[in-house]
Amino acid sequence: MRVSNLTESSRIYTANVYLIRGDWNTLQDVNTLVDVGRDPAVLEALQSMSTGVGKRTVDQVVLTHSHYDHAELLHTVRQAYSPVVMAFSPFIADVDHVLRCGEAITMGDRVFEVIHTPGHSQDSICLFCEEERTLFCGDTPLHVYDSRESCDPEYILALEKLSEKDVQRVYPGHGRPIEGTANALIRSSVWRLQESGTRWPTRTDEHSPGWTSGLGRRDSR
Q1: Cβ-count burial of 199 within 10 angstroms (0-12 exposed, 13-18 middle, 19+ buried)?
Q2: Within 13 Å, how many C-alpha atoms sit on residue 202's CB side?
Q3: Do the Cβ atoms of 176 and 142 come closer than 8 Å?
Q4: Residue 209 pLDDT greater than 70, yes or no
Q5: Opening angle at CA 125, ends 130 and 69, nearest 5
Q6: pLDDT tens-digit readout, 155-199
Q7: Strand pairing partners for 127?
Q8: Measuring CA to CA, which residue among 132, 136, 108 is closest to residue 124?
């Protein structure tokens, strides 16, 4: 699996846009954008990438959530490359497939688990590859700095689930990748919440519930 940040040199405010390719650009690999951001320079960057002979430059787009800095360029990317678009929210225009927590999807040449992590937004997800021990977290906060903060019960359960994974590398929605310390970061947040006396929700099901009608607002952050 190869990961390229297409907005690393962006001059405007935008989320990170990751292109995931297989190691050998085979026909079976699924060239995937994790988020599309809002910088048109992403389209120029894609033109310079080696994505395989006889393949689409972008096979699919997976949105970590619907905030403008992660999703504004979606319609433009869809017009340019006709990818399959996946997101957790069913209320985003141009989405072909609504994801479910626990679903397995292929990105590049690896399989990722979709983990619903409401908190930053109700449609936030993380994408975890067990084989690579790699997590794409979007804007999901992995470090709880102040245990006095009020946390969504579903976010607490999601954070607890993430703490049970062997995460060695994190690709966040903003900033540089986190290498090596990811497990400690996540587990320290769970410990801090537990020590604070935060009321711990009951995990009634292996996966978080799907989208409900009351969560259909598109946040502006």
Answers
A1: exposed
A2: 1
A3: no
A4: no
A5: 125
A6: 888 888 999 999 999 999 999 999 988 888 888 888 887 776 666
A7: 114, 136
A8: 136
Highest mean pLDDT of the ranges 61-65, 119-123, 199-203: 61-65
HEC assignment per residue over the chain: CEEEECCCCCCCCCCCCEEEECCCCCCCCECEEECCCCCCHHHHHHHCCCCCCCCCCCCEEECCCCCHHHHCCHHHHHHHHCCEEEECCCCCCCCCEECCCCCEEEEECEEEEEEECCCCCCCCEEEEECCCCEEEEECCCCCCCCCCCCCCHHHHHHHHHHHCCCCCEEEECCCCCEECCHHHHHHHHHHHHHHCCCCCCCCCCCCCCCCCHHHCCCCCC
The two structure tokens encoding residue 187? 């587990």
Which two tokens mark 105?
A: 């999807």
Helix 153-163 and helix 182-195: axis angle, to 10°?
140
Name the token pair of 80.
């340019």
Residue type, 197: G
Q: How many CB atoms lie within 10 A of CB 48?
A: 7
Per residue in 20-56, pLDDT tens? 999 999 999 999 999 999 999 999 999 999 998 889 9
Name the CATH superfamily housing domain 2-142+168-179: Ribonuclease Z/Hydroxyacylglutathione hydrolase-like (3.60.15.10)
